[in-house]
Amino acid sequence: MTDAPSFMADYGERLVDNGYSVIPIMPGTKVPGRFTGGEWSPYPDWTRHCDRPTKPFEVDIWRRWPGCGVGIATGAVVGIDIDILDGALAIQIAELATSMLGDTPCLRIGRAPKRLLVYRAATPFAGRKRLPLEVLARGQQFVAHAVHPDTGQPYVWPEDTLLDTPLAQLPVLDEAAAMAWLDRAHALIPPELRPRSLHLPSDSGAWRGPSDPRGTLDAVKAALAYLPNEDLDGASWITMGNAIKAALGEQGREVWLDWSKSSGKSGNSGKSDTAERRWAKLRPHSIGAGSIYGWAIDRGWVPSPEITLNAAAAERAVQPHPAAAMLARTDATPPAAVVDIHPAAALLAKLDASRAKQQAAPLPVPPGILQPGGVLQMLVDECVGSALRPQPFLALGAAICAVGALAGRQYRTRTDLRTNIYIAAVAESGGGKDHAPEVIRRCFDLAKLDRYLGGENLASGRGMLSALEQHPARLFQIDEFGLFLATVTGGRAPAHKAEIWSELMKLYSRAKGIYRGTEYANKKDAPRVDIHQPCVCFFGTTTPSTFWKALEGGAMMDGSLARFLVFVTDTDRPDRNANAGIIAPQPALLEALKAIARGAGDPPPPGNLPDVHVVPMSATEEATPHTVPMTAPAEALHDRKLAEEDAWAKKVAGTPQAAIVNRLGENASKLALICAISRDPAHPQIAEADVAWGWALAEHCTRTVLRDAQRFLADSEFEKRLNKAINIIGKHGPCSRRDMFHKGLKLTAREFGEVIEALVTNGAVIETAAPASGGPGRPAGSRYALVPPPGDTPAEEVAGDE
């Protein structure tokens, strides 16, 4: 398997650049997968990629997986899947699609003459299946590049591929047009090519609706609309009859008769086993509404929120809630007397306290890191000296970004690394984290270097690029970075906001090349602008709560935040500085900043107001940076540290930590370069001390973010499970594990046991034995009910209510 070609390595990045959401495909299959512990396994959460762009670092991880194929998560993309082996008919139906939906340049063939046509959704919609045809839409996927499991050959694109066609250039398709094509195309399929059974899913672990076999009339009718009786075989006909009878009882007779009569052979079979006679003989077993719902969902049905699926839930909805009396008494209690806290709330409060305790003990910053020397030291000293609550470590992060921006396009390492760097500074509110950015702004203004300052807020990706077109080296200092992160990376982020994060990731990788701008149809008024060697430095300040909350959405775990160095202060509340005052940097500091902006070599002769009227290099001009040499001892130390990084990376290969560890050497090299420039802008040389400092700082930031992420995000995930369990039990009354699974708490036995143990141990939930109702030999199992606040209904009464 290790010798298998990686289609992801060859094509993944180009597809992402073209706007497609890609997913990894297990070798030799059509199934999304992941490679962990040296083995491939199915990827259970791949559908999340249908609702957001693929992050560049996801591809960085997946491209290393042996034999990884490339799938396209549908949603913004729609696939018209024609699964027909009759060549003439397959071509006829494909031509019908192009005539009704538009001529798409992208046609994919796996096992000819079967084919798939690719379109762009006007707005995402649910797909639908009418075998052997299918509209693959939101929540589904198709394979773009891999080896076909049947033919043993790669999928082919006879005309244009998605590599050549950006998403925005695909023809637009709406739901109504897609379903109209599906109806007309399916009518062209002769009876012998239509499926003769319901193709019941074989995965017993898949969702099949509520454990109670009874459904509601509205829900069953809505599901059956997706399950037309297209002359199915007798076994499928009887199976559906049993499911309808179990779901609706005698109320389902007319539904069954109507569904049976929709078949073209109804009444023409010559057999005496009519639908009316069969109904009386049906004896449902191990089937019901859940089966109907599951088959319909497989064919594209999305249950409306207004429809109640479960009959028991519908019955409860019209009855007084078991807790109504308790709530009435609570409402009658004067507010001053309500002092009891629900045990569930107490448990969650304990988790919050535990999390806060963990966050209050960051890794201590090694003293040597705070003594970099040069301009970095001068900036840190200025920030510390004028701050009311000094934060030297966060000030160092701001100083690094400032020097990196001024050095942009002027310096590089021998491996062509540049000084662009992204840093997130984390401290509690009121801890002094916002002072350093203000000092940097003041210094740049006084030194007449304000052209290097980007805006303090980013409205869109296009706005950020426009700033770089004016000056290609920029420092962006963003307050409330956690909120910013949640805004631009969330699944519901507006397109113009999500574009900011996407462009930041691209710009990071284009620092030594050319960022090629967007092509517009009106080239006269909106010509494409290319930016040569853009240098973006990004410094964001944030509180721990907003930062880690934003990361729950996956910004770090999917790898995109691996490009950030995370500076976590080792004291959230520093002592007051009695000498704090007005920001007034010394002339020596301002001259040192100007020297970095001038670049390496002897400075130009002084003239009238030097550096004030310097015209910045255009974004379209090719820069020729000075290559900063490295001393022999520095080279030796750097090589040893790279070997350590390789060993660490092997240990975490295939995990979310890998993307962060794999950036360690790159970040250390950039820091060493910035440190050397800071000491001697005119004749920089990376010494052994610079390398040691860069690696120490990069390792500290890496270990901090990995440790805190493991603790905080694990707690967040566990807390979400607790919340979900509490909400389900509170909404539906006493529940068994099976009930809670079908209502959304989909956990393994071990995970469920951990959740229940925490809830029971902390007095939030009680465990009771359910009445035996499954017949002889079937265990009753346990049920779980919320414990009412002290002084309310006894637990026994709550547990017995139904």
TrEMBL record:
Q: Name one GO molecular function term.
A: hydrolase activity, acting on acid anhydrides
In this chain the DNA primase/polymerase bifunctional N-terminal domain maps to 12-173
Alphabetical list of SUPFAM superfamilies matching this protein: Prim-pol domain
InterPro entries tied to this protein: DNA_primase/pol_bifunc_N (IPR015330), DUF3987 (IPR025048), PriCT_2 (IPR014819)
| Region (Disordered), start-end ranges | 769-802
Q: From which lineage does this chain's organism come?
A: Bacteria, Pseudomonadati, Pseudomonadota, Alphaproteobacteria, Acetobacterales
- According to its UniProt entry, this protein's organism is Roseicella aquatilis
Superkingdom, natural source: Bacteria
Ranges annotated as biased composition (Low complexity) = 769-783
Query: What protein name does the entry list?
Result: DUF3987 domain-containing protein
The record's annotation in SMART domains points to:
Prim-Pol
